[in-house]
Specification:
Residues 1-391 are annotated as: N-terminal catalytic PFK domain 1. Residues 404-782 are annotated as: C-terminal regulatory PFK domain 2. The protein is α/β, with parallel strands linked by helices. The chain has 4 domains: 1-176 and 306-360, Rossmann fold, CATH 3.40.50; 179-301, Rossmann fold (3-Layer(aba) Sandwich); 397-542 and 670-735, Rossmann fold (3-Layer(aba) Sandwich), CATH 3.40.50.450; 545-666, Rossmann fold, CATH 3.40.50.460. It has 26 helices and 26 strands. It has a 7-stranded mixed sheet, with helices on both faces.
């Protein structure tokens, strides 16, 4: 009954309450997904929800700027960039008379809950407003502008902030809404520029946004393998000009036809003097005579469609915001809901604002190490990976090789595999290892399709989709003899296996083979890379984000088509084997009416309920439907069956069309998320490998037989961790090739609520309030 009670509470939590939602400051892609979730989850709980148009300006001006929202008012906005309710820079609200006006407008409408989506400036304003609330009401009552009755009804104001800012400059959150989409825009441009730069052997200097925060610049340089990055938090050493020129010359000598330098608009040197893209261009032209061009990206970065990540982030945060508002009391501080690793957290708004201000202050006082620390774990990890990969001379292979490590791809192709190979090869070389690459998976390991990889072998691989090494689903068991022979022949001391479920089962087989073949007693580690995201031990796998964006793009186009034809339902089939991750997440990101998956069994009554739901929907102003089906969700309810059933039952009301997306989901250029994730995983795996090999040396040769020497490297909640394969065996459903417990199943109710189903929302999973100071400096998030 416990669950049932919490469900009843959620459905009635908002009765008699009113929530207003506004977007303020610079726009960011994904704000609309957040607005949509706040409106629909708010309505689901029984609350009334109001839009405030044009940010704080609308709050001050009132009247037609504050409008009640209904279910349909947020239809078709999830795929739009910017903010549909408008945002304005507002002077009035930052003066007390403006806030008096705003308070009066809210009181008159009975609104005591405010959800603010914006950057740190907007959120600071919200906190001031809350602190002054009772004094504002007292003043309004004294002036006779509101009654005593109204004061009683609106005795306190709840405020929850969502961080919408493409700079990702807000402390306490790993990702702000809009950051991922901005990276998408930047990477599209970098990829395009790379092709022209190679034709002409040019050097390109790209300036990206980020006045006080170098996050976009930093991730971009990891994702495109830039030669150098300038960020405000970590200025270069005083002789940086010489160092930079040396660096560019080296890259060219190694046979590279281009150089890419990324500059954050707020880049400075150690003395706080700005470093501009023009300065850098002049330097390179003068000293090296390279043909150099500058591209300033500007507002392009704020534009375009939100990425799948931002839509899901916006939707999840929107739901959290409503819960935090409705559970708020006069004593709870104004909070921010944000993401830490893969978990939603609530943080006191002012603590976050304070730390964010501290960073700027530290940079002004030239205490750059403090600034880096305050930015948090995630930023530091990224910086570490960047510096390790970029700021080295290509290692000269000496006679004494430390270790011999082989890298391979197994399973089906996934975008980002090449980025993982590149970073493990290069980190391996930096550590003085010999790195071998294996073609065509375990089959290639058996046939001896193995070669040594140099530094330049993997040049330019970060942005390439698919698998350059070649990949196969073959498992190793039947080749143990040949594999063992090749491990001995090539003196392989460790194996990095990048791939999907076969990489995982293959590694388990190798582990079992250790009993018979001592050549297999070497350390190995699996880096999950598959569009299906079904590898046990990791919340995400390399390639899933790219596939999700491909599916999203298709869904957007189909919705647009259905909007024109009206009364049409599209049924889309996604990949994923038995794993419903892609279907669920794509459903959430594209605003689907239902997502059928294997993990949540459904029967004819459910199908009937879905059809009935669509019939009702066609009576509203939204005359279209989108259904997502995972390829193996049910062997009898095939896509044809479901399409026929919908066609028959919807006769005269709507018609149905089907679309099987197929292998295009495995292709495409990897998204910034997959490039960055793969690069970090590759680097971490190789570092672990070098240590493990050294630990396993017995009498001059490697012998590793312990469970800890065969791991999966995965992201769990907030950290990248190595987990012994033997421990993960218990968590695996081998028949259906999925983990028994999957974190994203807890997000499924949100998909149903946003599609207007009466569903159970289990609130036991909700975020609790944490404190920033502690989390930002010692948090272990990835």
């Amino acid at each position: 009954t416990m669950k049932h009670d919490s469900h009843l509470q959620t459905k009635t939590l908002g009765i008699g309450k009113a929530i207003a939602v506004l977007t303020s400051g610079g726009d960011a892609q994904g704000m609309n997904a957040a607005v949509r979730a706040v409106v629909r989850v708010g309505l689901f709980t029984g609350a009334r929800v109001f839009f405030v148009h044009e940010g704080y300006q609308g709050l001050v001006d009132g009247e037609h700027n504050i409008k009640e929202a209904n279910w349909e008012s947020v239809s078709m906005i999830v795929q739009l960039g910017g903010t549909v309710i408008g945002s304005a820079r507002c002077k009035d609200f930052f003066e007390r008379p403006g806030r008096l006006q705003a308070a009066r407008n809210l009181v008159k409408l009975g609104i005591t809950n405010l959800c603010v989506i914006g950057g740190d400036g907007s959120l600071t304003g919200a906190d001031t407003f809350r602190a002054e609330w009772s004094s504002l009401l007292a003043e309004l009552q004294k002036e006779g502008k509101i009654t005593e009755e109204e004061v009683k009804k609106s005795s306190y104001l709840n405020i929850v902030g969502l961080v919408g800012s493409i700079d990702n400059d807000f402390c306490g959150t790993d990702m702000t809404i809009g950051t991922d989409s901005a990276l998408h825009r930047i990477i599209e441009i970098v990829d395009a520029i790379t092709t022209t730069a190679q034709s002409h052997q040019r050097t390109f200097v790209l300036e990206v946004m980020g006045r006080h925060c170098g996050y976009l610049a930093l991730i971009t340089s990891i994702a495109c393998g830039a030669d150098w990055v300038f960020v405000p938090e970590c200025p270069p050493d005083d002789d940086w000009e010489d160092h930079l020129c040396r660096r560019l010359t080296e890259t060219r000598c190694r046979g590279s036809r281009l150089n890419i330098i990324i500059v954050a608009e707020g880049a400075i040197d150690r003395h706080g003097k700005p470093i501009t893209s023009e300065n850098i261009k002049d330097l390179v032209m003068k000293r090296l005579g390279y043909d150099t061009r500058v591209t300033v990206l500007g507002h392009v970065q704020r534009g375009g469609t939100p990425s799948a990540f931002d839509r899901i982030l916006g939707s999840r945060m929107g739901m959290e915001a409503v819960m935090a508002l409705l559970e708020g009391t006069p004593d709870t501080p104004a909070c921010v809901v944000s993401l830490s690793g893969n978990q939603a957290v609530r943080l006191p708004l002012m603590e976050c604002v304070q730390v964010t201000k501290d960073v700027t202050k530290a940079m002004q006082n030239k205490k750059f190490d403090v600034a880096m620390k305050l930015r948090g774990r995630s930023f530091q990890n990224n910086w570490e990976v960047y510096t390790r990969l970029a700021h080295v001379k290509a290692p000269v292979i000496t006679q004494k090789v430390k270790n011999v490590v082989a890298v391979m791809n197994v399973g089906a192709p996934a975008a980002g595999m090449n980025a993982a190979v590149r970073s493990s090869v290069r980190i391996g070389l930096i550590q003085g290892n010999q790195v071998l690459v294996v073609h065509d998976g375990f089959e290639g390991l058996a046939k001896g399709q193995i070669e040594e990889a140099s530094w330049t072998y993997v040049g330019g691989w970060t942005g390439q989709g698919g698998s350059k090494l070649g990949t196969k689903r073959t498992l190793p068991k039947k080749f143990f003899k040949e594999i063992s022979a090749n491990i001995a022949k090539f003196k392989i001391q460790g194996l990095i296996i990048i791939g999907g479920f076969e990489a995982y089962t293959g590694a388990l087989e190798l582990m079992e083979g250790r009993a018979k073949f001592e050549e297999l007693c070497i350390p190995f580690v699996v880096i999950p890379a598959t569009v299906s995201n079904n590898v046990p031990g990791s919340d995400f796998s390399v390639g899933a984000d790219t596939a999700l964006n491909v599916i999203c793009m298709t869904c957007d186009r189909l919705k647009q088509s259905a909007e024109g034809t009206k009364r049409r339902v599209f049924i889309i089939e996604t990949m994923g084997g038995y794993c419903g991750y892609l279907a669920t997440m794509a459903g959430l990101a594209a605003g689907a009416d239902a997502a059928y998956i294997f993990e949540e069994p459904f029967n004819i009554h459910d199908l009937q309920a879905n059809v009935e739901h669509l019939v009702q929907k066609m009576k509203s102003t939204v005359k279209r439907g989108l259904i997502v089906r995972n390829e193996k969700c049910n062997e009898n309810y095939t896509i044809d069956f479901i399409c026929n059933l919908y066609s028959e039952e919807g006769k005269g009301v709507f018609d149905s069309r089907k679309n099987i997306l197929g292998h295009m989901q495995q292709g495409g250029s990897p998204t910034p998320f997959d490039r960055n994730f793969a690069t970090k995983m590759g680097a971490k795996a190789m570092t672990w490998m070098s240590t493990k090999i050294q630990e396993s040396i017995r009498n001059g040769r490697v012998f590793a037989n312990s469970p800890e020497s065969a791991c999966v490297l995965g992201m769990r909640k907030r950290a990248l961790i190595f987990q012994p394969l033997s421990d993960l065996k218990e968590e695996t459903d081998f028949e259906h090739r999925i983990p028994k417990e999957q974190w994203w199943m807890r997000i499924r109710p949100l998909l149903k609520i946003l599609a207007k189903y009466d569903t159970d929302l289990d609130t036991t999973e909700h975020a609790h309030l944490e404190h920033v100071k502690r989390t930002s400096v010692d948090s272990t998030s990835p």
